[in-house]
Design goal:
Length: about 90
């Protein structure tokens, strides 16, 4: 399980990215790279990292579900994810 501070940091980054998204797009369109560099580093969407919504695990992330592979497997086996069932043939 990820530290709470790491989860909080990612949430903070997401808010900053959303706040500056319009301004970043406008500055890029104008080609004003000097002003773009003066924006906060964490306002760049490249610095965001996908994390599991439950555990905060950064690796093995499945975008479609927003979960790590481990949580996905546990929840799918328990029948908690609609439309997902274990394959058998």
């Amino acid at each position: 399980m990820a530290k709470e501070s790491m989860k909080a940091r990612e949430v903070k980054r997401a808010k900053l990215v959303a706040k500056y998204a319009e301004k970043r797009a406008r500055l890029k369109e104008e080609g004003d790279y000097v002003a773009l560099q003066k924006l906060p580093k964490n306002a760049s969407p490249v610095r965001m990292h996908n994390r599991c919504k439950i555990t905060g695990r950064p690796k093995g992330y499945m975008r479609q579900f927003g979960l790590s592979r481990i949580q996905f497997r546990e929840m799918a086996s328990a029948g908690l994810i609609p439309g997902v069932k274990k394959a058998s043939w």
